[in-house]
Amino acid sequence: MARTLGIPSRVVLGFTPGERTDFEDIVVVRDRNAHAWVELWMPAQGWVRFDPTPRPDRLNPTTASDVADALGYDLAAYFDQIPDVVLTPGDTPPRFFDPGAIPDEDLTVDPSAFDTPVGGTGFRLPTWLQPLAIGAGLALILTGGIPLVKWLARRRRFARLRDGDISAAWEEIVARLTDFGEDPRASLTPDELAARVDPAMQPLATVYGRAVYGPPGSVAETHVTTATRSLEQTTQRLTGRYSRWERLIAWYRPASLVPTW
Fold first, then answer.
1. Alpha helices in 180-220 (DSSP H)
2. What is the per-residue pLDDT across 134-149, written as a single tens digit (0 to 9) for each?
3. Is residue 33 a contact partner of residue 16, using CB atoms and an 8 Å limit?
4. Do residues 36 and 11 lie in contact, with contact meaning Cβ atoms separated by under 8 Å?
5. Lowest mean pLDDT among 3-12, 89-98, 107-116, 226-235
6. N or C, fewer C-beta in 10 Å, the chain?
7. Cα–Cα separations (whole angstroms), residue 185 to 137, 188, 214
8. Alpha-carbon distance values, 67 to 45, 49, 61 (Å)
9. Nearest residue to 249 (alpha-carbon basis) of 189, 152, 180
């Protein structure tokens, strides 16, 4: 706005005053002190701060006053030159602080000016098609994101199982049952759930119960092998139980990703 009136202006990025410490001449300036403000060039004052978010601890002093206080003498005599006004190429800058440069009529914005992208006449989707394109993009992200998240979670569980964590095998089979639409209720014991699903799951339920409820160190390497083999056999049984279409739907169903608490 200032530049349209021929007033030199700039945006300044910096920091607000920090917090004083118990040490003399030492303040602490943190990331939250980062700030941006506007400065306008005023004759005999220099760059004057116009902060749209004024702070109670600093009342927008001029740059000239700050420097003059630091140097010990007035800088007004050195403000003979006025900085060049930065305008859009092709515009004619008005005279500095010329009242005649301020138009009397209301300023209006031509909506057609925003129809063409800056820098050329590149391809632009019609307005009516933009919501459809956004919706299609979001749907693509969601549908592609769910299988990706599941695949990453499955990799982490198998890595834990290779390190000897039998609970990872149990979490994997429960996640698959959930995605298939079955109800692996937490109120059931491992043996009860295995009896409802398939006999191939029973060895996994046994070693999982021993790992969870048994004394520390009671899980042997053979138990990890048993859990791995039982997980593979149960997965094969579930693959044969459900059709290819049902297995595809299970990949995109977010049921296993929703917390149960």
1. 190-197, 202-213
2. 777 777 666 677 888 8
3. yes
4. yes
5. 107-116
6. C
7. 36, 6, 22
8. 11, 14, 11
9. 180
The beta-carbon contacts of 179-185 under 8 Å, at least 24 apart in sequence, are: 179/150, 179/250, 179/251, 179/253, 179/255, 179/256, 180/238, 180/242, 180/246, 180/250, 181/250, 181/253, 181/255
Q: What count of Cα atoms within 13 Å lies in the side-chain half-sphere of residue 66?
A: 10
Question: What pTM was computed for the model?
Answer: 0.45
H or E stretch including 46?
A: strand 46-50
When pLDDT is cut at 50, 70 and 90, the band that residue 105 belongs to is very low
Q: How many residues does the chain have?
A: 261
For residue 37, which of 63, 18, 19, 64 has the smallest C-alpha distance?
63
